Amino acid sequence: MMAHLKERFGFFFNNRWLVFVVAMWIQTFAGIGYLFGSISPIIKSSLNYNQKQIARLGVAKDLGDSVGFLAGTLCEILPLWAALLVGAIQNFIGYGWVWLIVTGRTLPLPLWAMCILIFVGTNGETYFNTAALVSCVQNFPKSRGPVVGILKGFAGLGGAILTQIYAVIHSPDHASLIFMIAVGPAMVIIALMFIIRPVGGHRQVRPSDGLSFSFIYSICLLLASYLMGVMLVEDLIDVSHNVVIIFTAILFILLIIPIVIPISLSFTQEPRVPAEEALLLSESQKQDPENSEHDDGHEIIFSEVEEEKPKEVDLLPALERQKRIAQLQVKLAQAAAEGAVRIKRRRGPHRGEDFTLMQALKKADFWLMFFSLLLGSGSGLTVIDNLGQMSQSLGSNNTHVFVSLISIWNFLGRIGGGYFSEIIVRDNAYPRHAAMAVAQVIMAFGHFFFAMGWPGAMYIGTLLVGLGYGAHWAIVPAAASELFGLKNFGALYNFLTLANPAGSLVFSGLIASSIYDMEAEKQAQQHHDGQLNLASVLTNFLNMDEPLKCEGAICFFLTSLIMSGLCIIAAVLSMILVYRTKAVYAQLYGRSRT
């Protein structure tokens, strides 16, 4: 009996669904950057910063959230638990030191040093993110879209979850949120870090996997709906602290429920015998060209087919295209065997195979993916970073409502982006970036609503931009792993995430802030011209260092129109990538449909 129970626990701790569920929990703390808008007021007031100084801290936060070269490298050379530990230590030191400074427990540091601390603390997220994605994409090679979408979704929803947990603390000292950000992730990561690892997930494929994903999707939608309802109730009604505790307890239950999947698979179902797993692996390799070992001859033939096939073959239906390519492969193989043709050996990998980062950087497809992401996600991050000023300029003081709303829409965008892009890939053998183009067009409409400033524009704009922005982070990692392989996925993914701070720096740090200040100066000058008296001059002189405020839709009118145009350009780049990679996706996924 004890031996049987021990065996079952062994299956449980090596179950890929356990790794996935734990990765979901860890990803909750990979979104602490979204809480910067909640901690920046206490930093601003306690250190007497102005808005420009806070904006610089925000850029440091965005850089820390996205510069993951070290995380990607360490995840390739160290065990994933070690990389997670490094991230937890960075997070603890960075935000812990900020908390000590804000609460007056240690001497204040200059602004550049505070930027470094924010960068180091937020950069810990990249280790959580990379370790979770690398382990789960390897464990679920045939379900990359749903896996990436769900994991990135929890990162996007992390801000709303942590805000609700903070509400339980009910501390009048707002600096305690910084303390929670410093200590909470470190405790959770250290407790769970040994579970995050590849466990041979390709050998654990079961017929019930589709049902398991449906269950996870249901929990995700329920979680998002619940958080939105709780947020609205707490905003509209003055609820007691006991009610807040009950709300948070229900939240924890929803977060824990997915653990029933690995428990059910490990303790209620018979494990597969080795022979059955071997047979399953063999079948999987037959159907999935990415996970099977090709001999040199087959790779060479595939290389020649790519060069020799007529262009019109790519325009044929998937089934007919596969037949034509197979016929061409057979002819080339026969001709090569008879010495009629000489097959060239390739000098590097083809799309769909394993690339190093340096090899990928030489490919036009990689840069199309990067710049499409830069324009799309950069415009979305501009809205997230300026949501407070945007809502205030349109006459709303409930900034935290829109911060929570865009966090939830961001979450649903990531879930939906992974789900619908997987349908495009699996059912139609069509490039995943087609879903990306749709998301970018949706974002263009969202920016247009912001520009118009119509009644309800903040709600509609946050909905559309949040959904589109979130979809980017479900689609791009999955597409990168398909086109450039899994072997160096960590390095490739972390290079692509540089598009986020690059877009934020240009669109938010230069375009949005410059236009906002220009409009604010115009309004201040008009106000000044209308009140030319000694008292107003003295007031302006004494408050000349205070940041100017802009009111009305004009504040972000031009910025939003520019962002809308950039999203259209991003959609065009995505469709160019779709056109260029149709044959690759037909080769990767068309075979499983025939």
From TrEMBL:
<keyword id="KW-1133">Transmembrane helix</keyword>
<protein>
    <submittedName>
        <fullName>Protein NUCLEAR FUSION DEFECTIVE 4-like</fullName>
    </submittedName>
</protein>
<dbReference type="GO" id="GO:0016020">
    <property type="term" value="C:membrane"/>
</dbReference>
<keyword id="KW-0472">Membrane</keyword>
<comment type="similarity">
    <text>Belongs to the major facilitator superfamily. Phosphate:H(+) symporter (TC 2.A.1.9) family.</text>
</comment>
<dbReference type="Pfam" id="PF06813">
    <property type="entry name" value="Nodulin-like"/>
</dbReference>
<dbReference type="InterPro" id="IPR056555">
    <property type="entry name" value="NFD4_C"/>
</dbReference>
<dbReference type="InterPro" id="IPR036259">
    <property type="entry name" value="MFS_trans_sf"/>
</dbReference>
<dbReference type="Pfam" id="PF23262">
    <property type="entry name" value="NFD4_C"/>
</dbReference>
<keyword id="KW-0812">Transmembrane</keyword>
<dbReference type="InterPro" id="IPR010658">
    <property type="entry name" value="Nodulin-like"/>
</dbReference>
